[in-house]
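Morning, I've got a small favour to ask if you have a moment. I've dropped the whole record in just underneath, so have a look.
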Amino acid sequence: MWLHIDCFSGISGDMTVGALIDLGVPIEFLQEQLSLLGVSGFDVRAERKMVGLFDAAKFHVNEEGSDTPIDAALHSHEGHHSHEHTHSHNHQNEHTHSHEHTHSHEHEHNHDHGHSHDHGHSHDHGHMHRSYRDIRELISGSQLTDGVKKRSLSIFARLAEAEAAVHGMSPQDVAFHEVGAIDSIVDIVGAAIGLEYLGITKLTSSAVPLGEGFVTCQHGRIPIPAPATMELMNGIPVYGSGVRSELVTPTGAAILSALVESFGAIPSMKVRGVGYGAGTKRLPDRPNLLRMILGEPFKASGKADLLQVEVNLDDLVPEILSYTMDKLLALGVRDLWVSPVQMKKGRSGHLLGILCERTLLGSVQDLLFRETSTLGFRYFPVQRKILERELREVQTEYGPLPLKIGRKDGKIMNVAPEFEACKQIALEQNLPLKEIYAAVLSAWKKEPKD
């Protein structure tokens, strides 16, 4: 399954878990799996919460024996972001925890998002200072599944790398304050549990809005986004929201940085569900929600937007042109062709045409400038009408061989053997390629049809 994260109001750990619950992850399953961590002193619950016109799930981490969520308890005595000042426990490692101050602020803004994790330090279990090494050992030694461990550890690895970069130290020496609190660990591990429960194999996200302003903590005024958050956003598309509040927490940023494959608009998919995770604080210009869209990839018949790249070549050795085409195919372009053209001043040349996804344009550009003699090329958007495509194997006298089926509105329009597979058999057995093609089509005709 494919999950697209729509961060129109930012992202935090508890909002992530809330959206996964709204998509169908049972809270009882989360409770059962989180117990495998082998850590006591907390329990979790979820509630329905109306945010504007939206019915969303709000995820809470509660101190054991209390009905008050950690984030709510924090709000009740918050003062001026006082929770961040748990960093006063920093001892000699104060500099290593300053990042969490960042977390705390954000998390205090996280109130915006109800980021309970950062607030955990206001409680007994929250006061614990856990090192990156401690957390790795905790997760690795737990009874969680390998998939949950892998995702959780990758998120904490990104957090440690970001903190280390901010403070000029080794990731192995990082000691967490807020992110080491149990509620932060629960948010991160809970997100990994939810992703595995839903069978998520691909994770994408929208660009991420950032808040602005400053927050005051024990060590002075710190800009929003906090330094660790900004370090984690390296390579991620962001934009200024104009909201004077923390929209992205370190935990949320680490989830994006560690797990998301690509960022951009909602991809082409068959939507299977939509989930909303609620925050706590009211934002001035938008609902404080994280939206997740669950779906399956598809290739539907109809229009497909691509780019067509064209380049005129009149002074290139033919062998280099052939080599360049091979490199372009290896790059993943959809199609390419060469046509003879008569260029200015009577020169004979070639027109190289390329059909590719927009995301490949930069790679195509680099390859053309590196491998050919061109000084420039042109490109423009094009649309295609395409059939739904299915790759299927049929049993032939030469063994199983693939063929491609094209459908329109469920009706089979075209069937074609896969060239490369047929070519390999023809070469290995010294047979005419057309005989292999005929064998594949004959086997297809004998199979029961859908």
